[in-house]
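Hey team,

Filing this mostly as a record. A colleague (T.K.) asked me to run one chain through the structure pipeline before their review meeting, and I want the input and output archived in the tracker in case anyone asks later how it was produced. No errors, nothing strange. Just documentation.

Input sequence:
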Amino acid sequence: MKLTSIISVNFNQPEVTLAFLQSVKNNTIGLPIELILVDNGSKEDHGAAFLAAYPNLKYLRSEQNLGFAGGNNIGINIATGDFLLLLNNDTEISENLITVLTEAMDQNQEIGIISPLILYYDQPETIQYAGFTEMNYLTARNKGIGNMEINRGQYEQDSRETAFCHGAAMMCRRADLTNIGLMAENYFLYYEELDWCEQFKRAGKKIWFTGQTKIYHKESMSVGKESSIKTYFMTRNRMLFIRRNTSWFNTLLFSCFYIGIACPKQILTYLKKGRTDLVKWVFKGILWNFSHSKTSNKLGFKI
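Output structure:
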């Protein structure tokens, strides 16, 4: 069995990360893996506790928060495995995760990235992800397959192509990245895994889902449901994704829809909820796209 490099990123969540390390330790006994943890500018360095929990851990600390893509890219750059498995630190895994994912990729060389079934940790009978529908590039909207369904085993035999993987758990081959490259770091937060999937598609690779294994996700522990950082980057990056992955004409049509319909609707929702503090971040997210190139690394938000 080939070596799998598991890569995860911690940001100010030592307890969650320790639970993740224990889950990996318990569910990979006898498997050829290396576990890489990147501390992404946390206020305190808990490296000693992490190494005590997982003595063979490859631990790296960045003094700055480099975002989801930046943190994972650090880990990718030192990974030696044939397969790279990017896992959120707020996940816990199942015993057959590595075996099922690597076997699927070995059996189908067309697969570029694969994600498993994702269940909510606090509601393990509820599905978060069983694939994604195709993107409507005029609205930058698609739907999650299986989202909020009760898990009755309806996806457990699935192994199929899907439109996008889920950033909480996705495996690729290290060799493919020579041509495809790393995740785009100028997203910082949200949409970077969708953009990465687009890069794999352009290289002729398929995006894949399997329900034959699963993880449990402690959703929204890092950012929260509604916050200035989430509002800003969701607004900014939805437009950035379209700019980076579609034609100028499609971008023009999307911009008319986004600025004329989608964003005003979002602003009205915030006003009804009394969240006037979030309205300015919608405007800031839009304006960033008019004042920066689609390759700019300037975030426009103080981290």
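Quick notes for T.K.: The chain has nine helices and ten strands. The radius of gyration is 19 Å.
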